[in-house]
Specification:
Length: about 240
């Protein structure tokens, strides 16, 4: 978009999209003044670090963005940074979530929304001699599982339009394909996640993903391809919007 540099200079996180898309709350606390109050919101406290391990300016609390946002949080935040909702938003309708995010903003505040574009999930060979057939077969089964689970990813291709539809000004957006230096660690993360999600889903509802034995065979095929240098990845999509002052 026009004015990309000036937008990034004005944005209070003060970093380019590639860096801020990787930004987590505790990382941010190390680089910003202690006067900044940093809040982490999640629908469960189960994975929160012990409060004794948190920086003094970091507050973690439970808040389900699919439910009504507590009134005491309305209009309290300069920046709302949201990510990884693509696998929990059903029916391809992110509007209820977006509406609740907007309620959190102060006038002039920003929403930065980062997502892995699941529609771009794909396997990549390190050279023309290496086959990706088994990795691609598992990804195909995963995409079928997503569709059967009412997960639709079309909305990810227009995050700026989503923000605009809720009254924000879309300042910038970017699509970030996986860089070569991140392909291996990204693949390792996906392999761990697929193993756990596949085990749970195939046991609970074999009609969605296949039987545990079928999934195990697909997963072992993926591991074989990865051992030959195949990687799996998704694009990251990032959008930045601002509420009018």
């Amino acid at each position: 978009m026009a004015g990309h540099t000036s937008v990034q200079e004005a944005y209070m996180l003060g970093r380019g999209f590639k860096e801020s898309a990787r930004c987590w709350l505790l990382e941010l606390a190390r680089h910003k003044p202690n006067s900044w109050r940093l809040h982490g919101l999640d629908n469960s406290t189960a994975n929160f670090p012990a409060k004794e391990l948190l920086p003094s300016n970091v507050i973690l609390q439970r808040c389900d963005v699919f439910d009504s946002v507590p009134k005491e949080l309305h209009g309290q935040f300069d920046v709302v940074h949201v990510r990884a909702f693509c696998v929990v938003i059903k029916g391809g309708d992110p509007n209820p979530v977006a509406a609740n995010l907007i309620k959190l903003l102060k006038p002039g505040g920003y929403v930065q929304w980062d997502e892995a574009d699941c529609a771009s999930f794909s396997a990549h060979a390190p050279n023309v001699e290496t086959s990706t057939a088994k990795a691609a077969a598992l990804i195909k089964r995963w995409q079928s599982f997503s569709q059967k689970s009412d997960l639709k990813f079309d909305w990810l291709s227009d995050l700026p339009g989503l923000l605009c539809s809720h009254g924000l000004t879309a300042l910038d957006s970017i699509r970030l394909p996986c860089s070569d230096d991140l392909r291996k660690p990204s693949t390792d993360n996906f392999v761990m996640a697929l193993e756990e999600i596949g085990r749970l889903a195939s046991n609970r509802n074999p009609g969605l993903l296949g039987t545990p034995l079928e999934w195990e065979e697909l997963f072992h095929g993926l591991i074989g391809d990865v051992g030959c240098g195949v990687t799996i990845s998704m694009d990251m999509v990032v959008a930045l919007g601002q509420m009018r002052k």
